[in-house]
Each structure stands twice: as structure tokens, then as C-alpha cells.
Fold:
Amino acid sequence: MKAPYQSTVTLLLALLFAAPVIAATSEAPINPQDLESFVKEMEKEHLFDAGSLQTLMAEAAYQQKIIDAISRPAEGKAWHQYRPIFLTEARITQGVEFLQKNRRTLQKAEQQYGVPAEIITAIIGVETFYGRHAGSYRVIDALTTLAFAYPKRAPFFRQQLKEFLLMSREESIDPLSLMGSYAGAMGLPQFIPSSFRSYAIDFDNSGKRDLWQSEEDAIGSVANYLARHRWQRGEKIALRAKVEGDRYQPLIDKGYEPSFAVKDLLKYGVVPEWAISATDNKIALIALEQPEGFEHWLVFNNFYAITRYNHSPLYAMAVFQLSEAIRSSSALTLPDNR
Structure:
């Protein structure tokens, strides 16, 4: 059994004085009773020391700008507005540089998990611009704000706050020191706490899982995440298609999880850009909004695996297209395992 959380900073404060359970910002719309209940849950379910945890939670500050940010996600944009955010010359060029710099680690991850080097690179590129934009919010502030002042997704973020405290205890990290996104995502690959606990790995064999400073750990963790979400080595990701008539609409209505067979394409009026083997796994059809109409794509199980990282077909398509641009711009000879 693990020992109760004993952060040096918060334990010292707890010994000096008893702190009330209240967010640091006085105007914070957080009910102190909700925080009190949360502390009791952590004490009962996970053997946290109530006094130390009360002191820690008193340091967590409500931030209205976190609520503002999560209320306008980029995934709410149309594809023609979303794509230019990530498909830029700078992101492509620096993606090639990241790939070259980390070639051996990426090849190791590709060999071990089956995920192409350029896909791993593109995810880190989309998430944090290769570590340049890893988040400016304290993770504990983000998760506390969303857990207790964002009713729309409060249960999810309350669970993530629990996972974060458990993660901090397990990894012997001061929870007040960690920075991340407005949604509490952390490090180069922007793992939320539950993902960190389940999928982060020590790929550089340093003895700890460090997604903030270790590019090797970030690379291995992204590859492990996708492999655990059923990435299929050597299989397709996405393919442009033309549609005829209006018979294809029921396929779009099914969503982006592959659910129909290649042999059914013609009867729905869907024509792939290139021939697809009838033995290929199930596929889905998605429509991406452009100013002049919609473009259509057939997407495969590996596309769906990317959406397990971020549940948006726009996100997965940005990762796929960025990966293709990085691959075609790179002079390296890397295994083509799609």
C-alpha cells in the first residue's frame, strides 16, 4: 500500500496552521462544501491525509479564463478554419527537425508499437508545437476550476482531479509545480492525468515517467497510447473519395467509427480516390466543410485510433495531414509502415 500523500510544501504548511478548504481566489464560485466532500472522498478511498490535502486545495485558484477557454474549443470550427491552425510551414518544418533529432527514438517506438514516426511527431506537433506550447496554467488550478465550477463536465474533471492527485503521489511530484493546458493536459503530448497513469511510459529508462522534459518518454508514451487503442501496424489511415447522388448520407450519419465494408461503397455512390482491396477492414465516411462545400474522406481503424486521443475527426485529420506533410518534406529514409 502506498503511503499517504506527503508533499514537503503542503505538509509544512499543515503543521503551521489549519487552512480552510476554499479556493485561493475570493470571488471563486466554488462551494467550500463541495471541496470538503472531495477531501473526505480522497481520505476514505485513497488514504490521503485530510489536513495536508485541505492545505493543498486551499492553494488551488479558480480562474475564469479557464472557463472561457474551454467554452470555445478549436474543434468547434469548420474544417477550412481548423486546418490552417496546424498545417503551417513552421509546424511542418519544425516537425521535420523534431523527426530528424529524434530519429532513433522514433524508429524504436515504431518498431515496438507499430506507429509510424511521422504520426507520433505530428501528434506532438498538433498538441504542443513540439513542446513550445505545453500550457501556461497550473494543472491543479485548471482541474479544480473545471471540477467545481463547470457543471457541464464537472464529473469528468472531478475524476481527473482525483487522478492528478494520485499521479502526483505515485510519481513523487509536487502537484503545485506542474503546468499544463486549460483542461489540465500535461507535457509534450498533453496527457490528461488518467492517460498519464494508464499510458505514460519511461522510454528513456531514467527511472521516471517525464512528459515535460524527456522527448523520449513523450514519443514512447504517444506510441503506447495509440497501440493500446488498437492502432494496426501497416494499415491505412484515410483516403479521399468522391460521392455521387445522395445515397451516401446514411454513411456520414453513422459517424467516424468504421462500421461498413469496402464492398458496400458502390451501392452508396462512394468512389475512392484509389482502389481499395475488398479485404481491407471496415471503414467510415466523413465530410469536412470547405467554403465551397464539403470534401469527403474514407477513414479506417487507424484514423479512429487517433480520435481516441482527441474525440474529433477534425483533430485526427489534422494529425494525418500534418504527418503526410512531414513525411514528404523529410529527406530521411524511414520505414513506410502504413
